Every structure is written in C-alpha cells, then in structure tokens.
Amino acid sequence: MSDNYVNIALPKGRLGESAYAIFENAGYDCPDIHKQNRKLIFENAQNLVRYFWVKPSDVAIYVEKGAADIGIVGKDILLEYRPDVYELCDLHIGICRMAVAAKQNFTDNPDMVLRVATKFPGIAKHYYAEKSREIEIIKLNGSIELAPLLGLSDVIVDIVETGKTLAENGLVAYETVAPISARLISNKVSYKFKNTAITQISKKISNICKENIDD
C-alpha cells in the first residue's frame, strides 16, 4: 500500500457509518463505499485516503500496530485496553456513559468484597482501585443485567445509553464511571511522518463535529 495514502480504520455498524458520513462531509469521500458488495477496503486516489471496515473492538489494535494511520473508536475501548495511540478529537457521536448499576434496593456494604459483573474488567478495576474498594471481578460477555438479578453479582459496570434496559430489569444506574463517545485516534509513528495530512483531517473532522453540536 502506498505511503501517500492515509489509512483509516472504521468500525463496522452504525457508528462507523455515522463516522464515515462526517469524513465524507469533510471532503474525504470514497463513493465505492456506498456500493452493495463484500469489499472491506475502499480508496480514493484523488483524496489519498483508504478506508477499511473492522470489528469495533479491533480498531485500536489496527491503529496501534500501524496497519491503520487513524481510526474511529469508542472511548470505552480506549479506557479498557489503553492502547498506545494519540487521541485527536471527540466526534460527539455514539454518546452514552459507562455506569455502575444495581437493583433498586441495593446498599453497598464496605465491609464486604463487592462482586462486580462486567464486560469491561479493566475499566472496573481502575475505577474501584481509585476508590480503594475491594472487588471481585466477574467477567461476562452478554446479558450483564442478569447477574445481580440472579445473585451472581452485587453490581454491574456496563455501557448505559437510555437506561431503558436497566429499568425493564429492575436495575438503576447509581454512578457514572465515565462519559463515552466516538474518538478519532492516530498511530504515533504515522502522526509524525504523515503529520500534515493527519492534522488536516483531524481539524476538519473536529470543526464539523463542533458545528453539529452548535446546530
């Protein structure tokens, strides 16, 4: 692949589609990306950009290892895996929060080890370490809300968007761990050697996102 191109990793799904729309609006369009096909890599020789679709949780890996120069990733991924990348700007899309939730009648007993069910053990450990709270992590991959209902855990640490799923299962979000949204990240070596192109992209993306907020 030509070093003249800026390689951009986009997460598959709605977040990636929303992010690409911002790139398109910024003048970095790639018409072939809208065609119905199974291609994963799309490039525009005029704009010198190359896009590829990857699993959301893999974007940071592609960027950190240099397979992509820049990428779009949720703040939750950055907090969980702490990849060695630069965070350039907040796209203000995919907005939600990481929160601690439990049954409505839950009361934390500081004399007991707190059982925490989560898909994000790194975030949970860091959050409670700062509070000097002793915990037991229970790593789950799905149906996190079930854990406190069945007595598997005392609380959960998970992404909350509207809170509807929690409410339907008799759970309440008690604490916000961190705000979450999509971020533009860069490989550190790419940022040095492709600084002009990456900085220009970052500024245009940031300006469009700020305009969207103002609107």
Element layout with pairings:
Blueprint: E1 6-11, H1 14-25, E2 41-44, E3 49-54, H2 59-64, E4 70-74, H3 75-81, E5 86-90, E6 96-103, E7 114-118, H4 121-130, E8 135-139, H5 146-149, E9 155-160, H6 164-168, E10 171-180, E11 182-186, H7 188-193, H8 195-214
Parallel strand pairs: 1-3, 1-4, 7-8, 7-9
Antiparallel strand pairs: 2-3, 4-11, 5-11, 6-9, 6-10
List its traits.
215 residues; 5-stranded mixed β-sheet; 33% helix
Order of H and E elements: EHEEHEHEEEHEHEHEEHH
Structural class: alpha/beta
Low-confidence stretches: none
Euclidean distance between termini CA atoms = 39 Å
Strand order of the largest sheet: 2-3-1-4-11-5
Could you tell me the strand content as a percent range? 25-35%
Radius of gyration: 20 Å
Number of strands: 11
Portion of residues within helices: 25-40%
Shape: elongated
Q: Residue-averaged pLDDT, rounded?
A: 94
Helix count from the secondary structure assignment = 8
For the sheet with most strands, the description reads: 6 strands, mixed
